[in-house]
Amino acid sequence: MSVSFCGLELAHPILNGSGTFDAIAANKAFADDLRDAFPFAAYVSKTITLEPRAGNPPPRLWEAAAGLINSIGLPNKGLQGYLAEDLPQLAGLTTVREPGAEPQTVPLITNVMGSTAHEFSALVEACETREEIAALELNVSCPNVKTGLDIGADPLQLEQLVRAVRPLTRKPLIIKLTPNTADVAACAQGAQEGGADAVSLINTLRAMSLTPVDPSGPAGGRAWLGGRTGGLSGPAIRAVALAQVAAVAARVAVPVIGMGGVQSGAHARELLDVGATLVAVGTESFRDPAAGARIARELGDPARGEAAPSEESAR
Amino acid sequence: MSVSFCGLELAHPILNGSGTFDAIAANKAFADDLRDAFPFAAYVSKTITLEPRAGNPPPRLWEAAAGLINSIGLPNKGLQGYLAEDLPQLAGLTTVREPGAEPQTVPLITNVMGSTAHEFSALVEACETREEIAALELNVSCPNVKTGLDIGADPLQLEQLVRAVRPLTRKPLIIKLTPNTADVAACAQGAQEGGADAVSLINTLRAMSLTPVDPSGPAGGRAWLGGRTGGLSGPAIRAVALAQVAAVAARVAVPVIGMGGVQSGAHARELLDVGATLVAVGTESFRDPAAGARIARELGDPARGEAAPSEESAR
Amino acid sequence: MSRAPFARRLLTVAGVDRLGAYLVLRVEDPDGPQPEPGQFAMLAAEERWGGGEGERPYLPRAFSVARQRGGEAHFLLEDVGPGSRRLCELGTGERLWTLGPLGRGFTAPPSGRRAILVGGGVGIAPLAILQDRLQEEATVLLGFRDGARAEGAALLEQARVATDDGSRGHHGLVTDLLAQEVERDPLAVVYACGPAPMLEGVRAMCAASSVPAQLALEAGMACGFGACFGCVVPCRGGGYLRICVDGPVIDAAELDHVDAHAGAPA
Amino acid sequence: MSRAPFARRLLTVAGVDRLGAYLVLRVEDPDGPQPEPGQFAMLAAEERWGGGEGERPYLPRAFSVARQRGGEAHFLLEDVGPGSRRLCELGTGERLWTLGPLGRGFTAPPSGRRAILVGGGVGIAPLAILQDRLQEEATVLLGFRDGARAEGAALLEQARVATDDGSRGHHGLVTDLLAQEVERDPLAVVYACGPAPMLEGVRAMCAASSVPAQLALEAGMACGFGACFGCVVPCRGGGYLRICVDGPVIDAAELDHVDAHAGAPA
Ligand SMILES: Cc1cc2nc3c(=O)[nH]c(=O)nc-3n(C[C@H](O)[C@H](O)[C@H](O)COP(=O)(O)OP(=O)(O)OC[C@H]3O[C@@H](n4cnc5c(N)ncnc54)[C@H](O)[C@@H]3O)c2cc1C
Ligand SMILES: Cc1cc2nc3c(=O)[nH]c(=O)nc-3n(C[C@H](O)[C@H](O)[C@H](O)COP(=O)(O)OP(=O)(O)OC[C@H]3O[C@@H](n4cnc5c(N)ncnc54)[C@H](O)[C@@H]3O)c2cc1C
Ligand SMILES: Cc1cc2nc3c(=O)[nH]c(=O)nc-3n(C[C@H](O)[C@H](O)[C@H](O)COP(=O)(O)O)c2cc1C
Ligand SMILES: Cc1cc2nc3c(=O)[nH]c(=O)nc-3n(C[C@H](O)[C@H](O)[C@H](O)COP(=O)(O)O)c2cc1C
Ligand code: FES
Ligand code: FES
Questions:
Q1: Coil, strand or helix: which one is D52?
Q2: Which one of D33, D67, D102 terminates a domain?
């Protein structure tokens, strides 16, 4: 079950999606077993920005059909706060490799976002100095300050961005692609050309909800979310994720982290089958905080298809 | 409840999504009441291409979480077959305006797709000669023969396409946008600049499914659909549709036909609230063939918010 | 062809009978149109349709009318997935949405010619109503995977049975039995419904012996009334037929082969 | 603070008691950690969670622990939507997923100072377990929309009641009663849970009288353990607090106002 990814040896192929598991809060909320039986084989931080961000005004959540819309707005302490306060607390998480075997340290992946190449560079340079950080993930779903479009939606822009930050770090560089684009495989290729070591997808799909129409209540027709629009995650997007991951894995040589709506080992298996190397679990952790460990277990259970992804997979 | 759209007077704001209601087949399947109590206020044909198409090999369907993936592949008799055989059969459908009131003739909208501007022109020219056709809908979700991307995914290409066909018809020209794009509002704007009278959205989201993994059966990891990938529709995509329709309605002046996952009058109301003029029902008709009429009824029921969309809507 | 009213109807379960590995769901339907043998209905439980693992079932499911009499419609069910499972859980008095009867049924044999009914597994359902309606006595050959399923043979009268595991009747395929019958009476007309490999066996055998055969096919359906173009099988000479409106009963002569997805659950 | 095991637990319903417009769901939990007053759990029915109209509920729902004794955890339920409705439908012996106890509860008053418990509607739940645990007698003031809901007051002892429609107790707001109490005893400590307008009234009144107040807030939650950052309320001096880990009990001094979305169902 152990798997190597960009030079990192992981106990199993399941990690968390950025922004869907706050290990520090979880350590406070749960009794002590979490630290030594961490559900994920690698830990991805929430998106960190240069400056602290408070995030969007509430409400931030909406339950959709078989999914969740969030409009969190990337609250975080900012780069300095993260490096000074959070990173030391995150180091030393360990995960269980096999029942009975030695627990294994969980590599930390830091997810960062800038709104310009300059900001991304500053973030990457600062992270490069910290050895607790095993790899970097660049969240390029942020709106370009000039065009308003996602920076990551245009293959050429994305290639240039990656090319600019690539020389600044020797750590593995993962590009978290945006799914809100015409051709995600072209974007992945752009990232690879620019020097990315891996790509991850899918992020949430742009979505919206209105205040419930209640004949006796306030009129409908107004955006429910404080941030007006949000991102859809969960089972509703799984089939879209599978198509995007398959398209990307067929196009690029670098490893792919697949995610989107995974709830079970069978779902993870499908992403691996279409070419992902690792699988991230997001929204399902909200329903079951130990989902990551459960899914890793289900994946390892021979009855559910332990065999390595077959050569003649769907790619 | 009656509504005017591009000079057409419709009994109510509900029509069908292209390719989700074969009125000719339905007339054969159901007893005689269908012809005089047609569930939709306007009827949109399946996508018609220049040459006949058989469509994709089976299987063509996959049930996803709160949704349906289809890979139908646009089977149709081709332009000549459609004009000669189908159109005469479709003329004369009538819908019920108000309980008790005169039934009203259902305007026919023909949906066409080409793979080049030349093909689109030939389709539009041929339709222009037929007075049974009240309006044209251009399906621009087809892959561009050169780039492989959807023709409609690029605002500039789309504008040029519309500009090329606009002079060929005096009928209202509706552009059915693709949702698989970075900026659907820019595409809508392109269509408007090119001379479109209206836009419609959303079409299905690109999605995929694999053959079920059965330990005792054939290995998983292979695409289930004969066409390999397909399009996701139904409740799963409703929140994405709402966001895209809101973005488009805020950007363009032409009327918008909203669709995607509508199952009830409340859902239709939300699309109207964010700026749509008409609402199309697709997959829900598969669960309930009379869904169109039911939704129109629910929309007209004062208890569920008969009031006209408020000025301070979510736009 | 019987035609369905243009509306789903909410019908009530009159009772559920166990029949070996299968269930017979009896639904109160005193006023519905009389289905023809081979026609089907789209069914969905009124409650708890949706949700559960993988958030399915979402769309209604197709089931052959197995019998219609005494103001009841009967359906033969096997639990093969979330939709059929939910229908199997229905109890007396609970309700389900029903759209039908849909599709084109079997055509009676020319008078004087013997009908041979060949069924496999849960695919025996439409042959029961066909047997009820045939004027003359038919030969009935039914194949099952095992003994529990073979108890389903009680749905028809005077059936000869084959089982894969030999637990009842002929140890082997139902097409072995058919081969004997076709040889004995080359003027027979064959009516078949069952898993795709069985149907393909029947088709090939009948084609070789120039015996006419009507095959009741199955395929994943979204709508059941021709709207989605999802339920197709490839037909002779290219192109596809929609099972729900061009079938489910298709003349074997229209097919080059029976598509691997076009049979009843094995 | 009591901490939850890092796993959902599948617990069994011991019984359901009607309490006017509310239900008390009693769940067998002999071995779970002892919750502190104000802590909550994320609940989801084992079956039929998902599906139905709009395919909801999908995520678990937050409920205050209303009482924990005799090996049972009690929750006070009001049917306000698909999730609470499904929980209200649970019968004895059925099971539900439970994650908890979660969050930060109430802090006991300094000894010698009187506790005033102010509850509104279903928001009275955490005040019951608080009353159970307080060493000294507290003043209990509860407000309800109508008489059926006012029967919920039986969850606590010696409660003074206000109703919006005057059908029971004081005709008016529970904050009217609080005003009298605060005036009489400015050294009291206030503990409140209820709809947002009530909480804002309590906050403003206590701030004006310099009476310390602990407010148990509510907000739509996805996870309940700090993972999603969804359940926030704006706090004094800018920024947001996560109700599930920084609360649900928040010191009123940390708030400029109570967010309109941060209260119990009205
Ligand atoms: C005309 C007709 C008549 C029929 N008559 C009968 C009858 O009388 N009795 C009876 O028991 N059955 C009958 N069937 C078959 C029945 O409709 C199916 O078994 C049923 O739809 C299965 O639904 P399910 O949810 O139980 O199983 P599903 O999970 O839908 O699985 C059934 C099969 O569908 C495929 N599948 C699996 N997952 C999916 C998915 N997510 N999306 C799409 N396909 C999937 C697989 O091939 C699987 O083996 C008939 C079918 C047709 C078309
Ligand atoms: C810490 C805490 C403790 C609580 N304790 C209790 C308790 O003891 N007893 C009790 O009865 N309740 C309690 N609640 C409230 C309870 O969690 C909610 O009432 C419940 O989540 C509602 O779920 P629902 O599915 O029934 O209703 P929903 O449909 O989710 O509606 C509830 C409210 O959510 C909003 N809403 C509507 N639709 C959606 C949607 N699709 N997505 C997101 N929001 C939507 C609306 O404002 C609506 O009024 C508590 C909440 C918290 C946070
Ligand atoms: C509440 C929430 C917060 C998220 N925050 C981030 C984030 O900070 N950075 C990021 O790159 N992705 C973020 N995501 C996206 C997830 O990492 C993941 O890509 C997406 O949710 C799809 O996976 P899922 O369906 O398993 O949740 C967030 C998702 C959710 C639901
Ligand atoms: C089975 C099926 C076939 C479709 N065929 C077409 C088509 O031929 N042309 C087209 O423009 N859209 C087609 N669509 C897209 C629908 O018109 C509609 O845009 C989409 O399904 C979203 O709406 P819904 O969620 O209500 O189904 C098809 C959708 C389905 C499910
Ligand atoms: S099931 Fe939809 S066309 Fe046959
Ligand atoms: S509910 Fe997820 S952070 Fe509070």
A1: coil
A2: D102
Active site residue B187: no
**What does the pLDDT read at residue B220?**
64
Contact yes or no for A45/A82 (Cβ under 8 A): yes
Number of helices (H) and strands (E) in chain D: give both, helices first: 6, 16
Subunit contact C222:B61, Cβ cutoff 8 A: yes
Give the pLDDT of residue D55. Answer: 65
- Check whether residue C79 and residue C167 sit in a common domain: no
Ligand 3 atom at minimal distance to the Cα of residue A234:
25
Residue C261 lies in a domain: no
Residues D87 and D193 in one domain: no
> C206, C183 in Cβ contact below 8 A?
no
Calpha distance C70→C68 (Å, rounded): 7
The reply to whether ligand 3 has any atom less than 6 angstroms from the CB of A181 is no
Pairwise pLDDT comparison (B148 vs A246), residue with the higher score? A246
Q: What is the pLDDT of residues D178-187, one digit of tens each?
A: 999 999 998 9
Residues D121, D84, single domain; the answer is no
ipTM, two decimals, is 0.95
Same domain for D132 and D97? no
Distance separating alpha carbons of residues B25 and C253, to the nearest angstrom: 23
Q: Which of residues 161-180 of A touch B (CB under 8 A)?
A: 178, 180
The model's pLDDT over A166-214, given as tens digits with 9 standing for 90+, comes to 999 999 999 999 999 999 999 999 999 999 999 999 999 999 999 987 5
% pLDDT > 90, chain A: 80
For residue A20, give the nearest of A292, A266, A238 by alpha carbon: A292
Nearest alpha carbon to residue B136 among B50, B198, B80? B198
Q: What angle do CA D76, D79, D84 make, to 5 degrees?
A: 75
Checking if the pLDDT of A102 tops 90, the result is no
* Cβ atoms A134, A10 nearer than 8 A: no
In a domain, C132, yes or no: yes
Q: What is the pTM of this model?
A: 0.95
Q: Tell me, yes or no, whether D138 and D73 share the same domain.
A: no
CATH classification of the domain holding A152: 3.20.20.70
Q: Is C51 on the interface with D (CB under 8 A)?
A: yes
Q: How confident is the model at residue B315 (pLDDT cuts 50, 70, 90)?
A: very low
Instruction: Give me the domain span that covers residue C195.
Output: 115-254
Residue of D nearest to B267 (CA): D54
Structural domain harbouring A149: 3-207+224-304
Q: Are C262 and C218 in contact (CB under 8 A)?
A: yes
